[in-house]
Structure formats: C-alpha cells, structure tokens
Amino acid sequence: MIVPGDLFEIGLIVPDIETSIEQFHKAFGYTFAVVVDGVLPTRDADGDTVPPMRIAVSREVSPQIELLEAVPGTHLVAPAGTGLHHLGYYVDDLQAASDALAALGIPFARGGFHEDVFPASWVYHEMADGTVIELVDRQSAPARAMLTVGQIPDSPMIEGATPLDDGWRPASH
Q1: Residue 164 class from Cβ within 10 Å (0-12 exposed, 13-18 middle, 19+ buried)?
Q2: Closest CA to 114 of 150, 158, 144, 67
Q3: Smallest Cα–Cα separation from 88: which of 50, 39, 42, 122?
Q4: Fold that domain 4-163 belongs to in CATH
Q5: Which class for 127: exposed (0-12), middle (13-18), buried (19 or more C-beta within 10 A)?
Q6: What is the pLDDT of residues 82-99, one digit of tens each?
Q7: Any idea where the domains of the chain sit in the sequence?
C-alpha cells in the first residue's frame, strides 16, 4: 500500500537547471550538492528510448525537491501549464505497487529498464488530470541519499556530475 509518509520527492521540470538551483536556493533556502548528467533508459508502449537527463536533488528532505532539466521531444517535459513533473513515492515491491495503482484506474505509462529487467528501479503512472506518480524501489534510497551529500553512486544511468559550491552555484563559477 502507498501511504502519505512514503512521499519522498516533488519532481519539477525546469528549462535550465543551474538557474533553477540558484532560484530555489535564494528564494527558499534549498541546497544541492551536485548536478548529475546521464541517461534515463525508458520503456513504454511505443518501445525503448534512452533520453539524456540532467537532475539535481535537494539536500533537504521530507519531501525532497528533484529538478529535471526539460528535454523536448521526450517524456522529460512538463505537463501543459505546470512545471510539476511527478510525485515520487518509495515502495517495497515495485511490481506489486504498480499493479495496485493500475487496478485503481491509474494506468502504467512507462518504466525504467536495465538489460533484461523490466520494470527496473522506477515506474510512472498517470492520473486522469495528468499528474505523474513515480514509484521508486525503496532499495534505491541509499544511492539517492549519496546525491544529497555530493557523492555519485555507481549507476549505468550516470555519465558525469558537476559539483556545486555553496549548495547552489556550479563549482566552475
């Protein structure tokens, strides 16, 4: 069962991740340790894609802010009229939780894959109003926690990272 206490993140699509990090820091005090560059292997009804991704997750949690840089032409775009991309929930059994949402009329939209494993790590379901619900295998929590302190987990999805000085400014500035 998915419960309110399992909400761990609010994912926002942003046009420029560095600008958004600065704004979230200056306006609300959020800090970020790293900008991650990588890919997001995705499977949906139309087949497999591997779009590029740039993300940053806040050090602050309950819930955490995840900024995703928009990638036009992929699913990494904001639903019409909003920057809200998804509400992310940790679950203990990814397939069972996904099946439960589908049974409630919140259909599966896409999910991660790795080699022959599907779904792997995460799935998206879309509510009738367009809100995306992300279910993430709770076993991913330790890797996610590494990002909050600027450590980079070993993952085939991660291709590089940019450290952030002061929690919001790219180290190269």
Answers
A1: buried
A2: 158
A3: 122
A4: 2,3-Dihydroxybiphenyl 1,2-Dioxygenase; domain 1 (3.10.180)
A5: middle
A6: 778 888 999 999 999 999
A7: 4-163
Going by pLDDT thresholds of 50, 70 and 90, the confidence category of residue 129 is: low
Contact 109, 115 (CB under 8 A): no
Identify whether the C-beta of residue 50 lies closer than 8 Å to the C-beta of residue 42.
Answer: yes
3-state secondary structure at position 78? coil
Contact 120/112 with Cβ under 8 angstroms? yes
Q: What is the DSSP letter of 79?
A: P
User: What is Dmax (Cα atoms) for the chain?
Assistant: 49
Radius of gyration for the chain, computed over Cα atoms and rounded to the nearest angstrom? 15
Q: Which helix (H) or strand (E) holds 97?
A: helix 94-103
